[in-house]
Amino acid sequence: MPALPWSAGVYEPADGIQLHVLTTCLPLTRYRDIPRFLRWTAKIRTQLKSTPGCAGYTLDAKPFTKTFWTLSAWSDKEAMEAFVHSGVHAKMLQDMAGRLGNPYFADSTATSAELPLSWADARARIKRSP
After folding, report:
1. How many CB atoms lie within 10 A of CB 42?
2. CA-CA distance, 33 to 86, in Å (whole number)?
3. Domain range holding 119?
4. Cα separation of 106 and 13, whole Å?
């Protein structure tokens, strides 16, 4: 399954602005949780479309390995944290509790000139993170 194309968020950073970038690796523990996760993903993408501070986002789904990667860019870490703990995303966290293996989260930065972010760059950032 190919990665979804980059979707721009409502935040349009000016030239040269530094953004907070979050890359996640979300391994599911069971194949039967994939449909549930994909339903949540569709709802979360709708939430992201109007989330303040979101500059853009994408998903790279690897269902055969039960692994889902997310990549998003934000005005700052506070905007990203507000999203994580609100609305549909907060409900998903409760519903998916215990259904993930060992998720991985990598915070990094990028400039507005680097948008849309690429998966190759994201994976390189993960390798460089502690």
Report:
1. 9
2. 22
3. 7-128
4. 21
CB 73 within 8 A of CB 117: yes
Looking at residue 88, which CATH number applies to its domain?
3.30.70.100
Please give the model's pTM, rounded to 2 decimal places: 0.93
Q: Is residue 33 part of a domain?
A: yes
Provide the 8-state DSSP code for 110.
Answer: E
Amino acid 105 reads F
Q: Is residue 2 part of a domain?
A: no
Chain-centre distance for alpha carbon 51: 13
Answer yes or no: are the C-beta atoms of 1 and 62 closer than 8 Å. yes
State pLDDT tens for residues 18-51.
Answer: 999 999 999 999 999 999 999 999 999 999 999 9
Task: List beta partners, residue 121.
Answer: none
Phi, psi of 11 (to 5 degrees): -80, 120
Domain-embedded: residue 82: yes
CB atoms within 10 A of CB 124: 12
